[in-house]
Amino acid sequence: MGKFHSGPERRTRTSRKLVIATIATVLFFGIELAAGLIANSLALIGDAFHNITDAFALVLALVAVSIARRPATVRKSFGYRKAGILAAFLNATMLIALTALVMIEAVKRLREPQAVEGAWMIGVALVGIVYNFGVTIWLMKEGRKDINVRGAMLHMLGDGISSVGVVLAALLIGWTGTTIWDPIVSILIGVVIFWTSWGILKETVNLLLGGTPQEIDPERVTVDLAADPEVFGVHHLHIWALGPASPALSCHLMMGDVTLRSAGEVLDRVNAMLAERYGIQHTTIQIEAAACAEDDPDCIPCEAAVRGG
């Protein structure tokens, strides 16, 4: 597993990218909405409104990054880093809600098809494909480590998929001569966006409820902790997220009868390992000079956790 990096420099870079992407998204929304009204294309108009929600999503992510920088207080001892997780949750929820509205309108158009201008649809959608997938790729590096950015990036990816669908609808309309493909493709686009949004929604709910970040395997962490020659067992292991890309850990390490110096050296080693392999910078580790109780449901059996035992 690679090394994790965080800090003011990463947050500044992320903020800069979000600002540029927001400005570009607002400009593209205006162009696409105008073209959709001229072409009378639901797929194009729906794609345009997905773009304005992209701008809102990017602003929300940017605000969350700013809030997360606020220092901890007595009442909020972990600071405001979970603002990013909340922003990602709101972004996923908003995208699902808007997609539902577009699908409802698409069902109405299935009953009463309306004429559309295929040429306008193709021209603007091709620009949208380049733009949306371009921004998605641009934000991908930050999105891999930060669910807040990933939530905003999901909006851009959804619009890229929508643009592909708009081109497909226009081609089918030109080939068959029937405009029913416009709402059909809109519904198919909605299904894809629902599917991609659901993953972010589940992940953010898990993190808001104190669950383990999906990129971290607790069993693997247990094995790595028990791999230290002074550790005989691990129990009461808990891993949660203080914020995007900010996992925290607490556990008990079974070490037998050791000196305070030895315990300190073990803590230094395991903390360095957790930071390097899992990006876990915040830990609370209790040393216990006792064996695991056989009937303790929280205990990871020593023979299952230690070195090849």
Short structural description:
The protein is of the alpha+beta class. The protein has nine helices and four strands; from the N terminus they run H-H-H-H-H-H-H-E-E-H-E-E-H.
What's the number of structural domains? Answer: 2
Count every helix, treating DSSP H or I runs of 4 or more residues as helices.
9
| Helical/strand content category | alpha+beta
Q: Which outline best applies?
A: elongated
Q: Report the end-to-end length measured between terminal Cα atoms.
A: 24 Å
Uncertain ranges: 1-6, 300-309
Radius of gyration: 25 Å
Architecture (CATH level 2) name of the largest domain: Up-down Bundle
The CATH class name of the largest domain reads Mainly Alpha
Placed side by side, the strands forming the largest sheet appear as: 3-2-1-4
User: CATH homologous superfamily of the largest domain?
Assistant: Cation efflux protein transmembrane domain
Q: Total number of β-strand segments?
A: 4
Outline the biggest β-sheet: 4 strands, mixed
Query: What value does the average pLDDT take?
Result: 78
Task: Describe it.
The chain has 309 residues and is of the alpha+beta class. It has a four-stranded mixed beta sheet with strand order 3-2-1-4. It folds into two domains: 8-208, Cation efflux protein transmembrane domain (Alpha-lytic protease prodomain-like, Up-down Bundle), CATH 1.20.1510.10; 218-305, Cation efflux protein, cytoplasmic domain (Alpha-Beta Plaits), CATH 3.30.70.1350. Helix 1 runs antiparallel to helix 2 and helix 4 packs antiparallel against helix 5 (147-176). Mean pLDDT is 78; it is low at 1-6 and 300-309. It has helices at 8-39, 42-68, 83-111, 118-145, 147-176, 181-208, 218-226, 260-278, 302-305, and strands at residues 233-243, 246-254, 282-288, 299-300.
